[in-house]
Specification:
about 130 residues; alpha+beta; Glutaredoxin; two-stranded parallel sheet; two-stranded antiparallel ribbon; 4 helices; Iodothyronine_deiodinase
Length: about 130
Amino acid sequence: MARLRSFQRLAAHFVDIADFLLVYIEEAHPSDGWVSSDAAYNIPKHQCLQDRLRAAQLMREGAPDCPLAVDTMDNASSAAYGAYFERLYVIQEEKVMYQGGRGPEGYKISELRTWLDQYKSRLQSPSTVVIQV
């Protein structure tokens, strides 16, 4: 839950230069599977899309200002982006501009913040073109 709050703060800070989207994928530590001792929620493995949608509502509560999408039951988004089970991306004009490491170890909000700070600086610094005649 702390990671979700950090993500929401990041999204609020950079709302002027980026759109943010959360994508809820399969549950990393389902209560009826590989249970984590520090799991914030008791969510069983999703058996159908309705299960996944209900679980995604918990994420929505943690970041109410951020749009939320839900992966399909065949985990197409997770497979396409190698999200297993958390990952940060910046996508611009259908091109991956930033790809964070796989979570939980590679999920680094601070690294994404640095990337966005640098991107914002480039946007605010007009490029200078020198033409010699």
